[in-house]
Amino acid sequence: MTELTDEEQRILAYLYDSVSRGERYFRAKTIAEAIGLSSKQVGARLPQLAEKSEDVEIEKWGRARSTTWRVTPE
Q: I want to staple 18 with a disulfide (CB 3.0 to 4.6 A). Which of 23, 27, 53, 68 is the partner?
């Protein structure tokens, strides 16, 4: 895996934990509130993490009011 920033590590840790409990769909706002970042910070990093992460697959899933991200274990 490539070098990750502290913020990226925090986002991935949250996603790994949530996916292990069966959650699959996320919004940047929800992730941001849980780990103390802004939704813009999270939303900007999720596409990058989709390419960097080897343990979960992150894909843009839908866009209603805000983008929903689908996260599945690899």
A: 23
- Establish how many alpha carbons lie within 13 A of residue 66's alpha carbon, considering only the half-sphere containing its beta carbon: 13
Count how many Cα atoms sit within 13 Å of the Cα of residue 51 in the half-sphere of its side chain: 6
Tokens of 57: 């697959």
Sequence-separated (6 or more) residues with CB below 8 Å from residue 14 = 31, 34, 35
**40, amino acid identity:** K
Whole-prediction pTM value? 0.88
DSSP character at residue 65? S
Q: By the 8 A CB rule, do 46 and 37 touch?
A: no
Indicate whether 1 pLDDT > 60.
Answer: no
